[in-house]
Amino acid sequence: MASAILKSATALQDVSQRSSDEIISSSRRAVVKISAEWCKPCQRLGVKWKKFANKYPDIAFVEIDIDECEEKGKYRGVKLPTTRFYKSGKLEDWVVGEDVAGVIDEMLETFG
């Protein structure tokens, strides 16, 4: 899957026409999951990811598969999965790993 924005668990929109950077910069708040299809921890976090998107519909959820995106070099060396939090296009914080669902949920609660 190329970069995709997840607005709800039922609507996964392909954004191959728009780069993830465009989505992040045009959204007031965005959460980006950097992952890969072959990454088992990424797959386990993916189940929780859809729940987050439903719980926080006013936040843009972007999923970037490092093997499929056109900006591959940009993510070289990033540990998987990594979740990044952006406000008005600016990176505010990030967490690494699959066992961070509680941390992500807590951060989203206060991500105003």
Quick rundown:
With 112 residues, the chain is of the alpha+beta class. The chain has three helices and six strands, in the order E-E-H-E-H-E-E-E-H. The protein has a six-stranded mixed sheet with strand order 2-1-4-3-5-6, sandwiched between helices.
Task: Tell me what you see in this structure.
This protein is an alpha+beta fold. The chain has one domain: Glutaredoxin. It contains 3 helices and 6 strands. A 6-stranded mixed beta sheet has the order 2-1-4-3-5-6, with helices on both faces. About 10% of the residues have low confidence.
Tell me, what's the shape?
Answer: globular
Q: Could you name the CATH topology?
A: Glutaredoxin
Terminal residue distance: 29 Å
Reported for the largest beta sheet, the result is: 6 strands, mixed
The CATH architecture category equals: 3-Layer(aba) Sandwich
Count of DSSP H/I helices: 3
How are the strands of the biggest sheet laid out side by side? Answer: 2-1-4-3-5-6
Q: Label the structural class.
A: alpha+beta
Number of extended strands: 6
Order of helices and strands: EEHEHEEEH
Enumerate the spans where pLDDT stays under 50 for 5 or more consecutive residues.
Answer: 7-17
CATH level-four homologous superfamily name: Glutaredoxin
Overall pLDDT: 79
Global Rg: 13 Å
Task: Give the count of structural domains.
Answer: 1
Q: What is the percent of helical residues?
A: 25-40%
CATH class: Alpha Beta
Q: What percent of residues are in strands?
A: 25-35%
